[in-house]
Amino acid sequence: MSEERALRANVLGAADTAMMAVAGSAPAYSIGASTAALVAVAGLGSPAALLWCGIPMLGIAWAFSHLGRTEVNAGASYAWVGRALHPVLGYLSGWALIVSATLFMVAGAIPAGSLTLSLFDPELASNTALVTVVGAVWFAAMALVVYLGAHVTARAQWIMSGIEVAILAVFLVVGFLRAPSIAVTHFDWSWLGFSHFDGMGGFAGAALVAAFYYWGWDVSANLNEETRSARRAAGLGGIVGVVIVFGLFLCFTVLVNLLLSADTVGGASGNLLDLLGQAIWPGPGGKILSIAVVLSTIATLETTLIQVTRTMFAMGRDGTLPRAFGVTHRRWRTPTLATIVVAVVSVLLFVAANFLGSVGEILADAISAIGLQIAFYYGLAGVAVVVSHRAELFKSVRNFLLIGLWPGLGAVFLLWMFVEAIGANSAVVNGIGLGLLAVGIVPMALAWRNGSAYFTRAVVLADTVDAAVPAGGELR
Q1: Secondary structure of residue 435 in the 3-state scheme
Q2: What transmembrane ranges does the database entry give (predicted)?
Q3: For the chain, how far is it from start to end, CA to CA, in angstroms?
Q4: Across the strands, what pairs with 328?
């Protein structure tokens, strides 16, 4: 492979990818921005939605780990699903990540701007123009960091996400210690069951929001070409990341149920952790947790940029997007055109969205629409590992559980959730989520017509022990 089409190899270690996976799921941002939407559909069953979505999500993390052992490719699910199932499904998996990431960067830049301003003066957070400017500045700064390469990005993540997770851990411990004296309700085991959902459709809608909480850990897979011992380290980083955020999400949602009423959560308007911080530590608490949310939001903007630019890089290298997307900067070895295009388009959409509706409306619609796209490409990855590794499934109990049963059930759950949620969603959410997926058919048809070799690759069986396929290569 020529240097102009190569990412810089061996710049990240296993610990770096685990931290990137945690940053990708953005624990503080997800709790702060998504819990109001989750409580709206699940009520006191919010912890159950995260629990029963987190277990299959860990199965999908195992799927990514095993798929990555066979082929090291920055396109991740785009490459693996296309090879194991069908190029059309692989392309749509890559496209789903591109559009969901772009949507998220619009939704994510909003709290980045408003929460930053609220640290200085709460009234400034309601100034739409100022929120737009500050959010755009943060986004541009993260685009620059991503452009400077994976090594710089990882160093930034250790600082931002390290501080974020430390703050969350401290408030989690203090919150549970103080809960007996300040709780507005008492813990009930039904919070982890299914009694609070409005039928299967209600559970599917809640699980769709829960999927948004977890989404982003797979950035470790998109960084595999830049990771040392990539066949194992990148996948392990994703698994460790899911386990960490699973614990944080479940514990914090239980804490929210204990300390905040449903009416309080419903009126949070994208800044729930400020209210939770005030309940745990009146006065400074809200400010400190708001700092964690700001850091989390900025960090996940960075990892989302990595995911979308690496996916577009892999697609450009294959000719399924214009080949200019597959060219890297001579010095930094980062995808130049992909980074510039994504940054410009996201900022333009962010500015437009900020003047078209309230923060709460934008976040709620974007979260549900992204949830559809997440369920689609994660579910296909779970099917892909079972299909491509089927010759290995019955060689050991471990293989059957970790390559077959767990990822397979995770895939079934996510694809069921995808179908079920379509019937429960509003026309706006379905229009955004499914409409943007359908748009991908146009560039896919053009790439197929232009003769991209991606669409002629044979579907193959994989052997994670003996086979290693380089990016863009063929498995023999």
Answers
A1: helix
A2: 21-43, 49-67, 88-110, 130-150, 157-177, 197-215, 236-260, 288-308, 337-356, 362-387, 399-419, 431-448
A3: 18
A4: 335
pLDDT in tens, 96-141: 999 999 888 877 777 788 888 888 887 887 787 888 889 889 988 9
Encoded tokens for 9? 């190899």
Is the alpha carbon torsion for 447, 318, 473, 398 positive or negative?
negative
Q: Give the CA distances from residue 11 to residues 16, 152, 224, 229, 322, in Å, rounded to whole numbers and listed in that order.
A: 9, 10, 10, 11, 27
Residue in this structure with the two tokens 């994208």, named with its chain if needed: 270
Which pLDDT value is given to residue 361? 63
DSSP 348: H
Position 467 confidence tier, pLDDT thresholds 50, 70, 90: very low
Is 276:53 a contact under the CB 8 Å cutoff? Answer: no
Structure tokens at 461: 């069986």
CA 314/CA 306 separation, integer angstroms = 12
Cα separation, 475 vs 1, whole angstroms: 17
CA dist 405 to 85, 167, 382, 402, Å? 18, 36, 10, 7
- Is pTM beyond 0.70? Reply is yes
C-alpha Rg value of the chain to the nearest Å: 21
Distance CA 182, CA 85 (A): 53
**Exposed (0-12), middle (13-18) or buried (19+): which is 449, by Cβ within 10 Å?**
exposed
Q: Which neighbouring-strand residues pair with 335? A: 328
CB 368 within 8 A of CB 425: yes
Tokens 């992909």 locate to: 338
Residue 35: pLDDT band (50, 70, 90) is confident
